[in-house]
Amino acid sequence: MQLDLMEGQDHEDVDDGSRSAGVVRVTMENDVVPVTGAGSGIGRGEARAFYEAGARVVLADVDLSAVTAVAEELGENALAIRLDVTDKAEWTSALAVVEERWGVVTVLVNNAGIFRGALLTEQDVEGWRRIFDINLVGHLLGIQAVHRGMKRNGGGVIINTSSTAGMGPAPDLSAYGASKWAIRGLTRTAAVEPADGNIRVKVMVPGIIATPAAKATGFPDVVPGQPITAIGQPRDIATGSGFEL
Question: Which residues, at least 6 apart from 76, have a Cβ–Cβ distance to it below 8 Å?
Fold first, then answer.
């Protein structure tokens, strides 16, 4: 992999992930990169950036029509797969398809996640478990699914996706915030356990990102608690992911 920097472009208010990252270019001609939650927002932006860097990209999402549309737009080195990240059997079958077509996964981007607002004292257990299943268990199953192949192949990179909601109190987002705290803990453990296989496990910690989902819930123009107060764009996260390789 080779990494070089390019000048950024002006941001618009909302980015559905359809535009290029525009800041970092990573040369990845030999890489196979599944991105979960690639149907929209951050995942879509990351998938596009890796594709433009030369990788063979697997766009994975429960919404097959969404990732199929993106894959068709990108070209022959993009593959759309339906994947429920909470289902171990689906991970196994998805990886089998990928390995048969392109070989072993070299980079995994664990991005799929959901958020739903609720006060801690009013959060129902079913909703809590659903958020943890997708946000945390989905990351765990992804790590387990690619670990053996990466080790056999001499190494790889796993990029998990946390949030600034997992760095401090998250009022009205109790389950989401707790799940994102847990992803940071999962990453620390995963980074140590597979060390013998030359597998690097990283975590991205985005602030508020101007995705369609975030726009639907409403978001401010600036976020005073963030080091950079401007609302981020999906391509900003793709840029960060490039630095993690």
Answer: none
Report CA 230 to chain centroid distance, whole Å. 21
What are the start-end ranges of the H helices in 30-137?
A: 41-52, 64-74, 88-102, 125-132
CB neighbour list of residue 102: distance below 8 Å, 6 or more residues apart = 32, 56, 79
Set 50, 115, 176, 181: catalytic member: 176
pTM summary value:
0.80
DSSP state of 203: E
CB 85 within 8 A of CB 36: yes
The pLDDT tens digits of the residues spanning 128-183 come to 999 999 999 999 999 999 999 999 999 999 999 988 765 677 777 788 889 999 99
Q: What is the DSSP letter of 134?
A: I
Sign of the alpha-carbon dihedral angle for 239, 61, 58, 94: positive
The whole-angstrom separation of Cα 17 and Cα 38 is: 9
Type of residue found at 35: V
Please answer whether residues 222 and 238 qualify as being in contact, where contact means their C-beta atoms are separated by less than 8 angstroms: no
Q: How far apart are CA 32 and CA 34, in angstroms?
A: 7
176 flagged as catalytic: yes
Could you give phi then psi for residue 113, rounded to 5 degrees? -170, 160
Residue 208, number of CB atoms within 10 A of its CB:
18
Distance (Å) of CA 48 to CA 3, 101, 128, 192, 226: 16, 19, 31, 30, 26
